[in-house]
Amino acid sequence: MAKQFNVPPVVFPSGGNPNTGPQQRRLPTAPFQPPRSSNPNPGIPFMSFDMSSAAASTSFSPPQFGGNTIGGGGGVTGFEDEPPLLEELGINTKQIWNKTISILNPFRVKADLHEDADLSGPFLFLMAFGLFQLLAGKLHFGIILGWVTVAALFLYVVFNMLAGRNGNLDLYRCLSLIGYCLLPIVILSALSLFVPQGGGVIFAIAGIFVTWSTRVCTKLLVELASCGDEHRGLIAYACFLIYVLFSLLVIF
């Protein structure tokens, strides 16, 4: 047996139609805003700011360095006491100049100046040689550097084979001596810019400068390395071949 429930009747105000009655529109309400006080930061007191007084009080004063030292302890020296940059790099310009002057006089070569070998002067001469060749329309920078390396190896092997176990010529000194003695060939390259190519004049001038380089290089090798005096002729022949090779770059 089904149970019955008593449902109360629903009464609509407009004749039973719930959609025909007047609809009331809700007005939008403003979002919640907290109350504002007269002092926005009650924990921080108000401070006045005067531009003129601030400019006078914040004037910048440059730092003061005492004497020639950096820092207050006095343990660090100043920039005036620092050695020059070239000296820190191991480039002695005075020594390079003295070696160059000694090469320019083939009859009075000072071998003691070349005891301390370096590559700064030879590198300068090689770059000058390549530059003069470039002015002549020949790009020989790589060829010059390669030939100098091969020439140093050749002279190193020849001299140590002649000297035997008593030979004390190292490859670094060979590079230094060949580079410095290349100065007459560099001068020849500069003169070739003003001399007609292919004539007998350039060959005669090249012979003079090759002889100059050969004499200087042979004398330096004999005096700086031991057991070289008895093989002076063979050493001179090896040096002659090296500088003839470089002169051919200038002539042709």
Question: Can you characterise this structure?
Answer:
The protein has helices at residues 51-57, 85-88, 93-104, 120-135, 141-163, 171-180, 183-191, 200-224, 232-251; strands spanning 69-70, 76-77. It has 252 residues and is an all-alpha fold. A two-stranded antiparallel ribbon has the order 1-2. Helix 5 packs across helix 6 (171-180). The protein starts with 50 loop residues before the first helix and ends with a helix. The model has no long low-confidence stretch (mean pLDDT 80).
Multimerization state: single chain
Report the uncertain regions: none
Q: Could you report the average pLDDT, rounded to the nearest whole number?
A: 80
Largest pleated sheet? 2 strands, antiparallel
Which sequence of strands runs across the widest sheet? 1-2
Protein topology:
Elements: H1 51-57, E1 69-70, E2 76-77, H2 85-88, H3 93-104, H4 120-135, H5 141-163, H6 171-180, H7 183-191, H8 200-224, H9 232-251
Relevant terms:
elongated, 252 residues, two-stranded antiparallel ribbon, 9 helices, mainly alpha
Concise summary:
With 252 residues, this protein is an all-alpha fold. Helices cover 50% and strands 2% of the residues. It has helices at residues 51-57, 85-88, 93-104, 120-135, 141-163, 171-180, 183-191, 200-224, 232-251; strands spanning 69-70, 76-77.
